[in-house]
Design goal:
about 1100 residues; alpha+beta; I/LWEQ domain; 7 domains; eight-stranded antiparallel sheet; 42 helices
């Protein structure tokens, strides 16, 4: 549908300046993409630019704006000014043409003057963003490029420095290894290490110098100090090792025991190097470097202490002891031999004391380091230390109990469709064998699949959010969704996903709601299709889709069986269950991985011998007994002598119907033998001659069951029975049917106190029959009496035909019901059909026919547009006519989910030009979608612009057109021009709430006009409001069409609707309740797309504002 920025013409309220954010996103903390642009410009500001462009920088520095009360915070203004200075100086260097440079300078001067307002400044205001987009369209690209170049420079310097430190570590380790065999070589290596340390110090200065481009002096000093400290620590380590070479030679084993610590140290440095290479934000890089180096530095100090301790235990300082002994022994008169003995004992005592204290200190430091490590891992959510084999698998986590959990969850959250339950079971079986477990990290890379798995795991493993539970969810985003879904904090404590109860909820609700990929079970299993293979996209694209499809089909067959698969699932054992019991018996010592191998086979043999089990059945039975902690009871034998009563047989038949083992027709036929004599004949005749299955079922069931049995039936079935027995459907004995009808309504509608404020008929809702016509009805139609009666009932309900019309009684009196009714007997009915075709079925038609509203021909063809509309409206009426008004505020879409129909670049009406444009842009840029043109260079963008300048189009280059535009894959077809894609953009937003529109025929027409001559809201408008409220209550947005309140507009669809929008919430203000909507027909998100002024007020069954009338509501699946 067409859409422009003028689609919404409601009077806009003045926005609060504090919330006056516009199209281009910018942080309020003075940073762009992690760069402190305030500091970045400090260097640029001090450049001698005044010589070439007098006054421009001074205009920024000395602007009187700083003395005015700002419209946006002062800090943000300064950020924007500094950022513009960076843009100005960077862009100026890129312009080589003198004329273009002069033009650019004039625009800058003009822009700065516009920013300097009399009453207040305009930095960060609407004017600022509007002029920035108009005069400097490449602003964001230039700033981003500058930031990127700085980051790359820093990254190269830091990585080079880190590599040098790794070389220092490697040479230190090699020197220690050679100390016992070749002290000379070891010293030479240490000398080389000292040279590397000097090089590292120089590289530290170079890296710190790079920071002057973006960091503050304080950050620069912190960065340099962290590196200098760690390099100095390595210098101290080398000096310590040099002083211990001889000691290492004498006791090499003790020193080499420290080498694993040095290996661990190197590993930490490599991990840090990897983090540096992945980090894209330079501010975060500094924080990582400071945190990691603090820990690494502590490790080095601990390592030095270990060397000193080893060296100290070899030789206690005898000179010091001598001095102390001498002082203490001045007063002694013992012989020299006695003094020597005292001296020896004291040396031994002090040496032992020193050892003891050193050991205590070592243990204290290790404990402290371990405590800090655990706290750090908890804070950073490092991968869990819990191994897969440590996860307990008991009766509560056995396959059979987990299957029961899944089925129980499905009964709570599912819709009863056994295909969907079958696919859930197949998914869990394929992903984890019905066992909640954690993903294992792939280590070996012998095959291509193993290599690919290692590459994949490297992307998320370090975050701690690796595969867990029944569907092996990965990535933090999915854990956050799981937290919202279950109410359990699995983000802070990821291992909670391993709980079978939590895992079952995630698997069932996640697949129902489309949590994992956006695809839902209902997309592949519905009234129109069953797709076992493509359903794999719910979890993981097409990975092993055929295997999962085969599993799902097998489960579906079991679920359809007589016992619903109960015996199979109760006795289900996977191999992990067996390993669990074998391990508990002490016969299996391996990990519980569900894989059968030599150790498992050995354990199985020992288990069979222990319990004298002769075959596999006996083995499995004993496993179940031990796993569940009780003996299996034999199934009770059927008492063949007992004959069920008639009531028990009826109850048994109904139980079969509930399990989907028999359908409604079979149930009706099966009940005939238990019917009273007078009822059985009527039912038999209907079954054989008329095929009125719903009425057969109703009459047969109610005739042959007492009220206590009827109360066992679910309410939906009772409602269907009541509809079929309603007085207007007189196919059998009228008096008897009325009695049976009253029996059901007495159960389904218990007596209530009458309200004196309003008559009873205003609250009572009569449901329409869901039966379809067997042939055409209306002018020139077949007009079977039974079909005409269905249509008349529908027309009366919606007010198109008077309930007192004599034609209704005429048709009711015709027997048999296949009797053909003549056109002249249906004058009023045909007239009512035409009116419904105009105001309800309102068919879509081609552009050449858009001269007036479709008037209708008075004929309802079976399966035609009017018939489809009636079927859709019947469903909506039966489901929503009793809906209470939604009187709470609801918002279903975030601003970030807004979609514009207009892309960055050319937007066309013509399909042929659209195809030409898409092919040209994708080939020229190499991008998958023409919507990505904004990523290309300015030269390429200008080339595209010039190429299509003579084609009829509109060019959009606003920031929101880059970030929120519709992609080609989301359009109804590739050649559809974006200028007429409001339908597609609205439909895209609808999908974000999990809803899908059924189709053009499934709609509620709420407003109709004729060629701009005015219009009126329809008889369905009130039901439309109830439907919208009902969908919002269910968490689903509603896809609607609107009629523009203006003359001479282009009309589309049924001749009334001009544009499509998405209703995504409801709220109330001083003027009353209104629907909130997102507008796709604009390129400005905040100003128009998600504006707080996007309101459709609800008044007297009308939904409208000053710009739009709500004309059509598309029904969701």
């Amino acid at each position: 549908m067409p859409g422009t920025d003028d689609n919404v013409k409601a009077t806009k309220k003045t926005a609060d300046p504090q919330h006056n954010t516009r199209t281009r996103k910018h942080p309020a903390n003075g940073r762009v993409l992690g760069i402190n642009t305030a500091s970045l410009t400090s260097k640029v500001k001090n450049m001698q630019l005044g010589e070439k462009i007098p006054g421009l920088i001074d205009n920024i520095k000395n602007s009187s704006l700083l003395n005015h009360k700002p419209e946006v915070p002062q800090e943000e203004q300064e950020h924007l000014k500094n950022e513009f200075t960076v843009y100005f100086n960077t862009k100026r260097k890129l312009i080589t043409n003198p004329e273009q440079l002069e033009d650019f300078n004039k625009k800058v001067e003009k822009f700065l003057k516009r920013m300097d307002g009399r009453a207040h400044d305009h930095w960060g205001s609407d004017r600022y963003f509007r002029l920035l987009e108009k005069w400097f369209p490449d602003y964001g690209e230039v700033i981003s490029g500058k930031v990127k170049s700085i980051k790359e420079s820093i990254g190269l310097q830091v990585n080079s420095l880190n590599d040098r430190i790794l070389e220092i570590t490697a040479k230190t380790k090699e020197a220690m290894q050679l100390a016992g065999t070749d002290a000379g070589k070891a010293r030479e290596l240490l000398k080389q290490t000292n040279d590397k340390i000097s090089e590292a110090q120089e590289k530290t200065k170079a890296a710190a110098a790079t920071l002057t481009e973006f960091g503050t002096k304080e950050q620069q000093a912190q960065f340099a100090a962290s590196y200098s400290k760690i390099i100095s620590s390595y210098g101290a380590l080398v000096n310590t090792i040099e002083g211990s070479i001889e000691g290492m030679g004498q006791d090499i084993a003790r020193y080499q025991s420290l080498i694993p610590q040095l290996d661990a140290q190197a590993g930490k440095l490599k991990d840090f190097n990897s983090k540096v290479q992945k980090e894209q934000d330079v501010q975060a890089l500094i924080q990582i470097q400071q945190t990691e180096f603090t820990l690494i530095n502590k490790d080095i100090q601990s390592f030095i202490e270990g060397i000193n301790l080893s060296r100290g235990t070899e030789a206690v300082n005898e000179e010091k002891v001598d001095q102390e002994i001498k002082q203490e022994s001045d007063s002694l008169s013992e012989l020299d031999g006695q003094v020597a003995e005292v001296k020896s004992k004291e040396i031994a005592r002090r040496e032992e004391e020193k050892r003891r204290k050193a050991e205590e200190e070592r243990k204290r430091k290790e404990a402290e380091a371990e405590r800090l490590r655990k706290e750090q891992e908890a804070a950073k959510l490092k991968p869990s230390d819990k191994k897969d084999e440590d996860i307990e698998i008991t009766a509560e986590n056995s396959a059979s109990s987990n299957i029961a959990l899944l089925i129980s969850n499905w009964k709570t959250h599912g819709d009863g469709d056994k295909r969907k339950l079958a696919y859930i079971l197949a998914t869990v079986e394929g992903e984890c064998g019905f066992r909640s477990k954690a993903e294992k990290k792939q280590v070996t890379a012998k095959t291509e699949r193993q290599k690919e798995l290692i590459r994949l795991q490297s992307r998320y493993w370090s975050s701690g959010y690796y595969g867990r539970g029944f569907v092996q969810i990965t990535w933090k985003a999915n854990y956050e969704k799981a937290k919202e879904l279950t109410g359990v904090d699995v983000v802070t404590y990821p291992d909670k996903v391993l709980s079978p109860k939590v895992a079952a909820t995630i698997a069932v609700k996640g697949m129902i709601d489309g949590m994992f990929t956006g695809k839902k079970l209902s997309h592949y299993f519905n009234d129109k299709k069953t797709d076992w293979v493509k359903a794999r996209a719910i979890i993981n694209g097409s990975d092993h889709a055929d295997d999962f499809a085969d599993k799902a089909k097998a489960h579906y067959d079991r679920l359809k069986s007589k016992d619903g698969g109960a015996a199979y699932y109760r006795d289900y054992l996977n191999f992990a269950d067996k390993q669990t019991v074998l391990k508990a018996e002490g016969l299996y010592t391996g990990i519980i991985d569900g894989v059968r191998g030599p150790n498992s086979n050995k354990a199985i043999k020992a288990f069979k011998d222990k319990y004298d089990l002769k075959d596999e059945n006996a083995f499995n039975k004993k496993i179940r007994e031990l796993l569940h902690g009780k003996k299996e009871k034999a199934a009770p034998k059927e008492d063949k002598k007992k004959t069920p009563s008639a009531k028990e047989k009826v109850e048994a038949l109904y139980a079969q119907y509930k399990k989907d083992e028999i359908d409604m027709v079979q149930l009706g036929k099966s009940l005939i033998p238990y019917a009273s004599n007078d009822g059985a004949t009527h039912v038999q005749a209907i079954l054989e001659d008329l095929g009125r299955t719903n009425d057969n079922l109703a009459y047969a069931m109610v005739s042959n069951t007492d009220d206590s049995v009827l109360r066992l039936f679910n309410k939906d079935l009772l409602d269907d029975l009541a509809d079929a027995l309603a007085p207007e459907n007189n196919y059998v004995n009228i008096d008897k049917k009325r009695i049976l009808y009253n029996r059901i309504t007495a159960i389904t509608e218990p007596a209530k106190e009458e309200k004196t404020t309003e008559p009873e008929e205003t609250t009572k809702v009569t449901k329409l029959s869901a039966n379809k016509i067997s042939a055409s009805v209306g002018k020139g139609g077949t007009n079977k009496a039974k079909d005409v009666q269905l249509i008349q009932s529908f027309l009366v309900t919606f007010g198109y035909l008077s309930k007192s019309c004599s034609e209704i009684d005429t048709v009711k009196g015709l027997v048999p019901q296949n009797t053909v009714v003549k056109d002249e007997q249906l004058t009023e009915t045909i007239k009512a059909i035409k009116e419904y075709q105009k105001y309800g079925a309102t068919a879509s038609y081609s552009k050449t026919e858009q001269k007036s509203v479709y008037q209708g021909d008075g004929l309802i063809s079976k399966g035609g547009n009017t018939d489809a509309s009636i079927q859709s409206m019947t469903k909506v009426h039966n489901s929503y006519s009793g809906e209470e008004p939604l009187e709470k505020e609801v918002t279903l879409l975030k601003d970030s989910q807004w979609v514009s129909q207009f892309r960055y670049g050319c937007n066309f009406y013509s399909g042929d030009t659209e195809k030409e444009y898409i092919d040209y842009v994708t080939e020229l840029t190499g991008y998958e979608d023409a919507n990505e043109l904004h990523k290309a260079s300015s030269e390429i963008i200008e080339k595209v612009k010039k190429k299509f300048e003579d084609k009829k189009h509109k060019w959009f280059d606003m920031t929101d057109s880059k970030n929120h535009a519709l992609f080609t894959k989301d359009k109804a077809y590739e050649k559809k021009g974006n200028m007429v894609c409001c339908f597609d953009a609205a439909n895209k937003m609808l999908g974000f709430t999990g809803a899908t529109a059924e189709g053009a025929a499934s709609k509620i027409q709420t407003f109709v006009e004729e060629s701009g001559k005015g219009g009126e809201f329809t008889k369905q408008a009130a039901l439309g409001i109830k439907y919208i409220d009902g969908q919002l209550r269910q968490g689903k947005a509603v896809f609607v069409a609107v009629d523009k309140v203006e003359e001479g507009k282009v009309q589309r669809n049924e001749g009334t609707s001009d544009h499509f929008i998405i209703i995504m919430g409801k709220a109330k203000d001083d003027d009353g309740w209104y629907y909130k909507y997102f507008e796709p027909g604009t390129s400005y998100m905040k100003r128009t797309g998600v504006s707080s002024d996007n309101k459709l007020y609800i008044t007297n069954n009308k939904v409208k504002n000053s710009s739009y009338n709500l004309s059509q509501i598309r029904v969701n699946e």
